[in-house]
Amino acid sequence: MNIGIAGAGAMGCLFAHHLQKGGFPVSLYENDTETVLSIKQGLTVTDGERNEIMYPNIDTTPSILSGCAYIFIFVKSHTTGEVMQNIRNYIEDETVIITLQNGIGNYEIIARVFPDSGILYGTTSMGAFKPQKNSVKPGGKGDTVLGGNNAHALHEIISILKTCGIEAAQTDDPGLAVWTKAVINAGINPIGALLNIPNGEILSSRHSQWLQDTIVGECVAVAKRCGISLDEKEMLARTREVCRKTASNLCSMLQDITNKRKTEIDSINGRFIKYGKKHALDIPVNETVYNLIKARESGF
Description:
Elements (H helix, E strand, L loop, with lengths): L2 E4 L3 H12 L4 E4 L3 H8 L2 E5 L2 E5 L2 E3 L10 E4 L6 H8 L8 E4 L6 H6 L7 E6 L2 E6 L2 E6 L3 E5 L2 H13 L4 E3 L3 H22 L10 H20 L6 H14 L6 H7 L10 H10 L5 H14 L3
Parallel strand pairs: 1-2, 1-6, 2-5, 3-10, 6-7, 7-8, 11-12
Antiparallel strand pairs: 3-4, 8-11, 9-10
C-alpha cells in the first residue's frame, strides 16, 4: 500500500520517516525544488544520539501521488486550497485525504474539492523541526486523533499509524479536536515565535505563562460563543502538558519566522480574532500577538 504526503516540512518528513520505517512505501509531493533536490540526497532523521537516513520517493510534480491509498496533507494552512487544486486530477476515487494540519478551516477547504466520505481529519501533538532542508529532528511525543465518516478507512489508517510507532486513536468529534488543538497552538506558537524559545521555556517565566494563560482564556471564550464547549482550566492544563511533552521543540511558527516564511497565524490566533469580532467579543492579547507576528512577516 502506497501512502502519499503533500508537504515535506517538519511534520511531513517526520510522518514519512515513521511510515517508511514501518514498511509502507511513501511518496512525497513538495513544490520547493531546492527541498526536493536536497531530500533526494537522503533525509536524515536525528533522534537523540541516533541518526537514520532514508530515501523517500519525492518530486515537485503532483502526479507522484497517483495511486496512493491515503494522502496526508501537511502543507501550511494558507496553501491548502492551492495544493488541493494541484493534486485533484491525480487522485483516485478511492483515495482518502487526511489532514492533521494546524489551524481552523482546513477541512472545509478540502471538502470543497473532495467528498466528505473521502476525508479524515483531526490533530497531532507530535513535534518536529528541520535544522536543514534534508534533516528533521523529532521534538517530542504526542497523541494523534482522527475522525470522519469513512469507518473502514479510519480503522485502517489508525492501525497503520500504530504499526509505525505513532500513538493514534479515533475520535467521534474531530471538529472539537481541531478547535482544541487550535487553542493549544494559539497559546504556544506566537509566544515561542516572538520570544525565540522552545516550547518548554514558555513555562519557565511567569510573564510568558501570563501570556499563555490569557491567550488560552480568550480563545476558550470565543469558542464558547461559537457553540464549542471547552473548559478553560482543562485547556490551560492541556496546553502546559504539550509544552512539557515537546519541551525541546521549536514550534512551527518560530521555524517559519527564523526562515523568513509566512506563518499560520491567520488560521490560528487570527481565526479566533475573526470569530470574536463576529460575536462582538474583544480578545486584545490575541490581537497583540497576532499583529506582532504580522509585523515580523512584513519584513520578509
